[in-house]
Amino acid sequence: MRNPWLRCPVLITGCSGFLGGWLTQELIHRGAQVVGLVRDWVPDSRLFREQLDQQMIRVSGTVEDAVTLERILNEYEIQTVFHLAAQTIVGIANRNPISTFETNIKGTWNLLEACRRVSTVQRIVIASSDKAYGVQSQLPYTEASPLQGYFPYDVSKSCADLIAHTYYKTYNLPVCITRCGNLYGGGDLNFNRLIPGTIQSLLAGEPPIIRSNGQFIRDYFYVKDAVLAYLCLAEKMGETGVVGQAFNFSNESQATALAVVQQLIQVMGRSDLSPVILNQAHHEIPHQYLSAQHARNCLGWTPAYDLDQGLRETVAWYRNYLSQGYQEGKPA
After folding, report:
1. Is the dihedral of CA 132, 136, 141, 147 positive or negative?
2. Is there a contact between 212 and 261 (Cβ–Cβ < 8 Å)?
3. CB 47 within 8 A of CB 27
4. Given a cut of 80, is residue 183 above it in pLDDT?
């Protein structure tokens, strides 16, 4: 079979982030010419820790800098764009909404405007989120559900999503949008998130912390499935009826925060440790989960991992990562 990524010039914004590192690795493996926009040098990110940056073209800059974005697209004759760069932490967005809006909203329109002005760009995949749907009375979310974020992070994703739609509708820009559930997997260094934080606590022999009341419902979506979903979507964008659409990606197996923590306790054999429930989560959506029927029907996509498989691989990754950190005498 022909490899559509061989020598294909690809720009990934947010390549040093959690999803970005895994997507970069897979595209390098498939022979793409990867150009990555990097804002901060984070030595423990997979991009640098596993020396992926040495197998790609790395450009320092931010999505807030429109001139740099247009220069990258022109000079490297980019054909495919994956726009992942974002401020992704809900708590940070609540504390500092303006910086979140600058990155998530302005960064998106900067990128799309640069793509509009550069003729080599053939396909653009914009990372939105299930948070763009906001609070809904009917679940699961479908792509027809209105975008109605209320809180700062959710609003930033709703806005970026709508801006992507307008660039397709107004300028016929070849855009598709992804809306994924809560991503998890090895390489997520934000230990305030439920899954990496729980694994870190259990490995240290400490009770895991649940910030909410434990009953918030989410889709937990394994990062390797997300990478395959992004690539599947990009490859299908040449087919009729795909460009301009949004796609939900989920394994359609929602769970409460408490259930995920209990499953991790079982996987890691730490039944002696019980979670501490703080009930301190504010300005967050209590229940959200996605229907991925549209992606199944239109793209022929299905997830490769269930929650148990994904959690077991994730635990193994953090067990190795954290043990290396302790051996080197530094907090991991």
Report:
1. negative
2. no
3. no
4. yes
Q: Would you place residue 328 in the very low, low, confident or very high pLDDT band (cuts 50, 70, 90)?
A: very low
Helix or strand (DSSP H, E) at 297:
helix 293-299
Closest Cα partner for 249 from 146, 196, 179? 179
What is the mean pLDDT of the segment spanning 205-212?
Answer: 95
**73 touches 13 (CB < 8 A):** no
3-state SS, residue 222 = strand
Say whether 31 sits in a helix, a strand or coil: coil
C-alpha–C-alpha distance, residues 315 and 177, integer Å: 30
Give residue-wise pLDDT tens across range 9-54. Answer: 999 999 999 999 999 999 999 999 999 999 999 999 999 999 999 9
Fold category of 9-183+222-251+290-304 in CATH:
Rossmann fold (3.40.50)
Give the CA distances from residue 246 to residues 129, 217, 233, in Å, rounded to whole numbers and listed in that order.
10, 22, 10
Of 141, 153, 167, 184, catalytic = 153
141 counts as catalytic: no
Rg value, the chain, Cα: 19
